[in-house]
């Protein structure tokens, strides 16, 4: 290492019990490998002293505790370089001394060893659900990582957001089922083995449910009825924002989770698939005043959390505490974190859980110009990352359509979900709103374009698509909360029988409804998102809040792909259909006029009569036509696309708009038909017999192309 | 950890026994890098290696970088299934040729 030792000040000035150290660099925060040593830097605005605590990996007691001398402190930052450490077997933490005065916001306790908010890896849950040592001093231990991964020319893909088809997934659920047929089940490595499946399905972006280190044992309990252990399965409760979940890595037991995750991302990128992370910056795993002190609470409680005037925790997240995102220190931590994931992990985008919280001031009131959201929007490192907000929180702030966007934030479109669900089940009075949703919600995003909205009908939160057409009510008894948890407003319809049935008519209708949903999703302007498993009709047996189940309620059973081949084939087709047709992927809104002089407006609306949509209160039908000459806002050429939806319970004839001379209508999709007539591959679409009229079956969707 | 090194005119053969982890990686590196610097190709015999840690994998990558700059090859022999899997999952496997016997390794060089 002597070659690198070019700085003449990298020599020890202090020694304690044989360990040599010196003053460190205040920035960057965290533990950074430097020639012959490690630079430790940590911030606390209110601590009176700080001690660095060093352990050998998994040792019950530290091998040394080094108090920071006064001359190592600059401002409120404690910085020290310690020499000759075994980088791979080191675990470090801090003791912070200071007042314990909760009413003033201080909760210091020097008896507790605290993990570093900037640690790049965290020990303690190295293998998923391995029994932890509950007695040990310092359960979640900061560790070092090597940051020298060889990316071999990889960089984030920068796919235009309107071209994405997002697949929302849980790393463990995707391959943990015995049927997954991968070697290292439930891991990043297992996911890598399934890349060919993702390519076949046609998705080009995966959105990973939380992969920052969390404690699967947090709030774990035994179900009194089944004896089953209920855990923090989804992981929406962060221990550390820089460390990947070790239990999601097959090599986590060797401390190589960082390399395993980066290898997965590199391979996904090589296959044209972007990686988006679901990030939870609204709260941490430390809970409220009754929760454990792990890191932030003991380092600088008042800085990191929103506190009431009495020193209790505001609970806008519904989970006990609220991260103080618009405190300048916390804001910088969030920014440092996202830059780190974009730069070091090549992450393509982030979806922010309960993002409305990021727009609250330190006393909880909503800000009109929230500095964190603005900082992220204008950050140079994040300049090409997709930023997507879940634009509501558990404190009642609902900002869908009004999230401060700064010209680039997108948001989960909850209104899209609700409108499509209601229309699908046959509710009336929706056609006007439906027309907005399939156009990319110009009523909500007039100045932001179609890509401000991520369209989805289902996500991890709520029913799966199969359950949406199989259950009227949630069935959450397995969660151990007397069916009180989970959303009551599902806008679902069971098609005639609650849950599983042998009635073939009901089963057929469910299959058709699933196809209808997938078809509407994939022909809507905006960014479509599919929930993992919906393409093969995965069920949660009516449970709409499976956050605590490490079992078949969450695991993807790959046998469903064969059992429900009809649905899988349709899903794959409709995704590829979207990718084959530029007219479905506009960036700017339609202008409702013919600005390319093709003889047709970019979009037009129809009903059972062409050019005459039925906007009436009792209408359950809707049709629209996209002119291919206006594809991609007039920059691309495509076929004409005609989509008609009939959610009425009887078949209805639809008069077809006349195409320009020489062109004919062809059938790409007809959900009323059984396979192999429910869809037709590109360039194999059969011509419509009667070019003037098409009879739509009851509750069905057709897609025609004019060419 | 024990290291045996033998050289022919174009190939240095390095046979390692034991674990390559943070306790031994530095030692391995200092023992072999001079030889690697003088050589066109490297054959690493891992038949008696039971574990390679993150630090150990990085020594392998350092050897690869040196040899690559001379358009040479690094071949690994006798890699256990577990070590192979770890190398595969962490992305290190792509940099090396892996063979089952020394004879086959020599054929590739």
What does this structure look like?
- The complex is a heterodimer of chains A (707) and B (109).
- Chain A is α/β, with parallel strands linked by helices and 707 residues long.
- Chain A contains 14 helices and 30 strands.
- Chain A folds into three domains: 8-143, Immunoglobulins (Immunoglobulin-like, Sandwich), CATH 2.60.40.10; 165-582, TIM Barrel; 597-706, Immunoglobulin-like (Sandwich).
- In chain A, 19% of the residues lie in helices and 19% in strands.
- The longest helix of chain A is centred in the last third of the chain and has 20 residues, at 504-523.
- The mean pLDDT of chain A is 96.
- Chain B has 109 residues and is α/β, with parallel strands linked by helices.
- Chain B is built from four helices and five strands; from the N terminus they run E-E-H-E-H-E-H-E-H.
- In chain B, strand 1 and strand 2 form a beta hairpin.
- The model of chain B has no long low-confidence stretch (mean pLDDT 92).
- In chain B, helix 1 (25-38) runs parallel beside helix 2 (54-68).
- Chain B has one domain (2-108): 2-Layer Sandwich (Transcription Regulator spoIIAA).
- Classes of the chains: A alpha/beta (707), B alpha/beta (109).
- The A-B interface holds A 86-89, 146, 148-150, 183-184, 187-189, 192, 249-251, 254-256, 259-260, 262-263, 266 and B 21-23, 53-55, 57-58, 61, 85-86, 88-92, 95.
């Amino acid at each position: 290492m002597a070659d690198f030792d070019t700085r003449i000040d990298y020599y020890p000035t202090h020694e304690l019990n044989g360990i040599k150290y010196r003053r460190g660099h205040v920035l960057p925060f965290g533990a950074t490998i430097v020639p012959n040593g490690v630079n430790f830097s940590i911030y606390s605005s209110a601590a009176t002293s700080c001690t660095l605590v060093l352990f050998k990996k998994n040792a019950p007691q530290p091998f040394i505790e080094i108090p920071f001398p006064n001359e190592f402190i600059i401002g409120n930052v404690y910085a020290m370089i310690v020499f000759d450490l075994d980088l791979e077997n080191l675990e470090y933490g801090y003791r912070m001394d200071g007042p314990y005065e909760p009413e003033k916001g201080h909760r210091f306790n020097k008896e507790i060893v605290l993990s570093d908010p900037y640690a790049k890896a965290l020990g303690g849950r190295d293998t998923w659900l391995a029994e932890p040592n509950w007695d040990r001093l310092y359960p979640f231990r900061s560790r070092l990582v090597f940051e020298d991964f060889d990316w071999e020319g990889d960089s984030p893909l920068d796919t235009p957001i309107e071209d994405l088809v997002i697949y929302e997934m849980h790393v463990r659920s995707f391959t943990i089922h015995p049927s997954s047929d991968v070697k290292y089940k439930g891991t990043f490595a297992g996911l890598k083995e399934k890349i060919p499946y993702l390519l076949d399905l046609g998705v080009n972006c995966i959105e990973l449910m939380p992969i920052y280190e969390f404690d699967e044992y947090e709030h774990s309990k035994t179900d009194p009825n089944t004896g089953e252990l209920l855990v923090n399965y989804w992981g929406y409760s962060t221990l550390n924002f820089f460390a990947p979940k070790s239990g999601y890595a097959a090599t986590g037991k060797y401390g190589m989770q960082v390399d395993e995750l980066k290898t997965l991302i590199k391979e996904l990128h090589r296959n044209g698939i972007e990686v988006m992370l679901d990030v939870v910056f609204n709260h941490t795993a430390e809970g409220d005043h009754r929760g454990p002190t792990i890191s932030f609470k003991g380092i600088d409680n008042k800085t990191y959390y929103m506190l009431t005037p009495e020193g209790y925790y505001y609970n806008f997240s519904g989970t006990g505490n609220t991260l103080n995102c618009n405190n300048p220190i916390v804001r910088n931590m969030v920014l440092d974190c996202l830059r780190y994931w974009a730069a070091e992990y090549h992450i393509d985008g982030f979806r922010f859980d309960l993002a409305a919280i990021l727009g609250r001031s330190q006393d909880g009131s909503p800000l009109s110009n929230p500095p964190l959201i603005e900082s992220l929007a204008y950050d140079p490192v994040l300049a090409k990352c997709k930023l997507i907000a879940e634009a509501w929180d558990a404190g009642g702030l609902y900002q869908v359509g009004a999230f401060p966007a700064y010209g680039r934030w997108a948001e989960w479109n909850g209104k899209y979900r609700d409108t499509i669900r209601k229309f699908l089940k046959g509710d009336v009075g929706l056609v006007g709103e439906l027309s907005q949703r399939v156009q990319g919600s110009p009523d909500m995003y007039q100045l932001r374009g179609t890509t401000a909205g991520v369209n989805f009908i289902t996500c991890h939160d709520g029913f799966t698509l199969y359950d949406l057409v199989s259950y009227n009510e949630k069935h959450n008894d397995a969660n151990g909360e007397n069916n009180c948890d989970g959303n009551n407003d599902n806008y679902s319809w069971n098609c005639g029988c609650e849950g599983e049935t042998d009635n073939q008519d009901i089963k057929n209708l469910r299959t058709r409804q699933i196809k209808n949903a997938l078809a509407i999703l994939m022909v809507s302007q905006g960014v479509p998102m599919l929930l993992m498993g919906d393409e093969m009709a995965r069920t949660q047996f009516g449970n709409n809040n499976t956050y605590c189940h490490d079992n078949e309620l969450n695991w993807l059973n790959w046998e469903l792909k064969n059992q429900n081949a009809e649905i899988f084939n349709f899903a794959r087709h409709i995704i590829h259909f979207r990718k084959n047709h530029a007219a479905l992927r506009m960036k700017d809104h339609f202008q409702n006029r013919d600005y390319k002089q093709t003889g047709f407006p970019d979009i037009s609306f129809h009903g059972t009569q062409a050019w005459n949509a039925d906007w009436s209160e009792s209408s359950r039908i809707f049709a629209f036509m996209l002119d291919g000459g206006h594809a991609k806002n007039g920059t691309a050429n495509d076929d004409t696309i005609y989509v008609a939806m009939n959610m009425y319970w009887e078949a209805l004839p639809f008069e077809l708009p006349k195409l320009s001379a020489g062109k004919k209508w062809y059938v790409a999709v007809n959900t009323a038909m059984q396979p192999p007539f429910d869809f037709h591959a590109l360039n194999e679409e059969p011509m419509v017999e009667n070019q003037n009229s098409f009879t739509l079956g009851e509750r069905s969707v057709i897609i025609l192309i004019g060419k | 950890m024990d290291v045996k090194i033998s050289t022919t005119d174009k190939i240095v053969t390095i046979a390692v026994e034991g674990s390559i982890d943070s306790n031994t990686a530095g030692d391995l590196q200092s023992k072999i890098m001079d030889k690697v610097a003088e050589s066109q190709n490297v054959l690493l015999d891992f038949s008696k290696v039971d574990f390679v840690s993150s630090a150990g994998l990085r020594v392998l990558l350092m050897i690869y970088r040196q040899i690559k700059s001379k358009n040479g090859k690094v071949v690994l022999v006798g890699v256990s299934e577990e070590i192979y899997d770890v190398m595969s999952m962490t992305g290190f496997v792509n940099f090396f040729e892996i063979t089952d016997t020394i004879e086959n390794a020599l054929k590739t060089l």
